[in-house]
Amino acid sequence: xxxxxxxxxxxxxxxxxxxxxxxxxxxxxxxxxxxxxxxxxxxxxxxxxxxxxxxxxxxxxxxxxxxxxxxxxxxxxxxxxxxxxxxxxxxxxxxxxxxxxxxxxxxxxxxxxxxxxxxxxxxxxxxxxxxxxxxxxxxxxxxxxxxxxxxxxxxxxxxxxxxxxxxxxxxxx
Length: 173
Hints:
acyltransferase, alpha+beta, Acyl_CoA_acyltransferase, 4-stranded antiparallel beta sheet, transferase, GNAT_dom, acyltransferase activity, globular
C-alpha cells in the first residue's frame, strides 16, 4: 500500500531541502523544457535561492509548504495571496504518487480560505497535462518566460476548501 502524502507548512529549517527539491525537479523532471541548456538551467535555478525562500516564509502574502512521503520531504509548493501559484516541484522519484496533487490541493485551499476566486500559474510544457488534469485551462497564448516556453493557465476556486497542514507527524527539517 502506498504511503499517504502529508503536506505541512514550510519552516526556515526547510530552506536547504526546498532548494534541493527544486533543483532536482528542474534538472531531471523538466529536462524536456530546458533541453539541458546550461544557461537556461542556471537562470531557472537562480530564481529560487535560499534568501528568496526565507523572505517568502516571513511574508504573510505567501504560503510555502512541503510534502512528505514516509516522513521524507519530496515536494514543495508556494502561492501568493493574489492567486498565483509560484512553485510546485516534486522529487523525480516521487512523480505519479500524488505529491503534486496534494501540494496543489493545499495551495488552493489556502487561497480559498482567503476568499480568492481564481488561481493562475505559468506552466511549462512538461507540467501542462498535470495542471489540466487538475482542472486548469489555458488563459492566454503560450509565450516565453526566461527563455522557456510557458503556458498561462487558470482555474476557478469554487469547490470546498482543501486541508491545510495535514497534521504531519514528522518534525520540521
